[in-house]
Amino acid sequence: MKRSSSIALLPHEKEISEHEETIELVKEKNEASELWSQNEIAKMEKKVEKLKQNVYANLQPWDRVSICRHPSRPHTIDYIQNLCDEFIEVFGDRSFRDDPSIIAGFAKIGGQRFMLIGQEKGKDTESRLFRNFGMPHPEGYRKALRCMQLAAKFNIPVITLLDTPGAFPGLSAEERGQGYAIAKNLLEMARLPVPVIVLLIGEGCSGGALGMGIGDVIGMLEHSYYSVISPEGCASILWKDSKKNSQAASALKLLAEDLIELNIIDEMIPEPMGGGHHDPDSVYQSVKSFILKHVELLKNIPIPDLLEARFMKFRKMGKFTIQDEALTSSSNTQS
To answer: What span, in angstroms and rounded, lies between the C-alpha atoms of 77 and 238?
Structure first.
């Protein structure tokens, strides 16, 4: 994997980048005067490859959150452009306005028709402002629900792509019923009479993600995260210090491996070494395979059974233990 100069460096990649720059410099010098043999250069490249494997195999939760937020990471628009043979966008909630932070429409992927609904953050300053940094307003959730109801009407499966730091927390959103809009989506998605595939492609924070996250199958890219709160928000509440984000990221159990163990998600989709932004095409192919595989399985399940399984899926989520107070008291007395 050769690093592109246009890809921003993350802190854990600094050492890798320094070694790669050294090798490039050696190659340039060799063109003028051959001071290093090809065998020596090959050995240097092999050492860098081992360094990459070591670094990426030992990433901490906060490192993976950083990968998830990388500015070059594929967003909903990228998936639409690279997965869909056709896409007809739907606008507006028929009540207030269109919310650009949510993109929705009729899509065709691998010959199969879907209703695709995704959260979009934007890529540069202008588009991020336009998309409100991926934080939907109530009308965004109403637009998403309107499109899901259209999918039910035409009997086509629904795909939702989650990538949001949370629903917009501003006063204007609260005035227009942010909490109710999310709660309404939870209810209606739970009984939507078509297959629903949920995929976390980036950040999945709080009710902002869950408002589009009730489905029959929940997949998650390897370096995405799914949590009730961001690491910074958690650190601010628990330790009154947002700089303890790394400690919070570890405590929240927000990575795919943790969430599979807790029965929150069903499948982790591997990413290329270093994250999806290093090789987007391989990510698009993996996501397409995930979608087409699961839609074929879900289409063969009768709707009443599908809805019952969806309900039970969320009822069974999470793990907890109950400690018997009498046993605890007895143990303390004996000790």
So the answer is: 36
Burial of 38 (0-12, 13-18, 19+ CB in 10 A): exposed
Per-residue pLDDT of the chain (335 residues; tens, 9 = 90+): 455 555 778 888 888 888 888 888 888 877 777 777 778 888 888 888 888 888 888 899 999 999 999 999 999 999 999 999 999 999 999 999 999 999 999 999 999 999 999 999 999 999 999 999 999 999 999 999 999 999 999 999 999 999 999 999 999 999 999 999 999 999 999 999 999 999 999 999 999 999 999 999 999 999 999 999 999 999 999 999 878 999 999 999 999 999 999 999 999 999 999 999 999 999 999 999 999 999 999 999 999 999 999 999 999 887 677 766 655 555 555 54
The values of phi and psi at residue 268, to 5°, are -105, 130
> Of 148, 105, 103, which Cα lies nearest the Cα of 130?
103
Assigned architecture for domain 66-315: Alpha-Beta Complex (3.90)
Strand runs labelled E in the chain: 86-90, 102-109, 112-119, 158-164, 196-205, 217-221, 225-227, 267-269
Give the domain ranges of the chain: 15-58, 66-315
Rounded to whole angstroms, what are the CA distances from 17 to 1, 22, 263? Answer: 12, 9, 37
- Which tokens hold the place of 156? 């086509």
- Write down the residue that tokens 């492609």 correspond to: 201
Q: For residues 68 and 271, what is the distance between their CA atoms, to the nearest angstrom?
A: 11
Give the C-alpha separation, 297 to 216, whole Å: 11
Residue 226's DSSP bridge partners are 204
